[in-house]
Amino acid sequence: MAYSLHFSALVVKYLPFFAVLRRPAAWLFTGALLGAHPARSQAPDLLAATYYVTGWLPLGGPTLGEEAPHLLAAPAPIPLTVGQSVKTTAASDEAQLYTFHMMAGQVAHVVADQQGADVVVTAQDPNDQPLAEVDNPNGSKGLEILWLQAATAGNYRVAVHPLEKNSTGTYQITLEAVRAATPADAQRLRAQQLMAEGRKLRGALTLRASSAAERQAATDKFAATYATWHELKDVREANLAMLSLAITSANAALVAAKLPSSTNKMTVYYSPGFEARALAIRANLEPALAFLTTKLHVSPVVNLAILNQAGWLLPHPQLQIPYGTPHSVPGLVLLPATLEFDKAVVAALKSGLTASQLRALEAAGGFIEQQMQAYFEDIAYHEMGHLYAYDYGVKAPTHWISEFLATYLMESYLIEN
Ligand SMILES: [Zn+2]
Prior knowledge:
Protein name: Peptidase C-terminal archaeal/bacterial domain-containing protein
Low-confidence stretches: 1-73
Distance between the termini: 43 Å
Bound molecules: zinc ion
Mean pLDDT: 77
Number of domains: 3
Strand content: 15-25%
Organism: Hymenobacter nivis
Strand order of the largest sheet: 1-3-8-5-6
Order of helices and strands: HHHHEEEEEEEEEHHHEEHEEEHHHH
Radius of gyration: 23 Å
Number of strands: 14
Helix content: 40-55%
Shape: elongated
């Protein structure tokens, strides 16, 4: 079942992937992922990684440097009773308010199920003081779960507002429970607080200028959040904390690891022994940086990391991206230092081809090894495309549009140059 889901995700994600159209080997690679091939066993990992990094963890979802929207004046709050759900459309420019009564010491559990609206959920005490805020990096789908504890008896309020002004969509809010606090609740409240602090620190960062120490401070909060949810065996919340950590920490982790680096127009970090490859790849990519900056009038930080297998997970160990899969996170494009991954894919492809098929393929585009390596190296431009699209302010509503844009930017450079 999981496989067929990946299959559908692939079809949706890769149909607009123009790079695939460029080389016969890339077509074969796609065919292999689609199933009728020995390389198929690699598909779930690859796709999970791609989905995670380019889709669900979009460079348009969890945001660096973005301020939470402000609460605006709103109509009277809607009373909620335990077990009751309200399904509604997020208001485009104002908070929607809900209220319920709590006794001193009680804990409330509120769930907002995002069904097209990416919302921020906040809580205020009876004196209108802010109590809690949740906004996970899960875009417009999935749950925002809010815990709050009453210091005094009274009417507490929960406000729901869209992350972006003038965006609307559906969500359903449910007051799951109001009950006496348990020891686990104290941990939940603590984790929620740590997450909010991490988001605040991350919000103060900018992609253009923020020190490793500043990133590290935010990262530490997410790590502590993760540890707390992990202890509570709450996998969902732990994963969201991990994701927040990952998108914040990549560059900080590389700096902390004291990898060798070289700064020109781009900074490249590389595993020891791979300086030549690192500088060569950077030399290829820097003209694209200039091209995209001129065309789009934005200049995101695009650092590069050329990492071997030993260092591959340094930037974000939590994501467990399989070694060799090119990907990007805010501020950083990651490529493998060695080519085992390309070679494994080529070997799997070749083993499924007849000699005449292989000859036909190579007649069309050169040695399949070269075609495949060129294809994988071009993905670096695609990853840069993600960072530009993001810095340009594009928040793609679906994953394939995000992939399309990244590929479009890649192609616009490759075709003109
Ligand atoms: Zn992508």
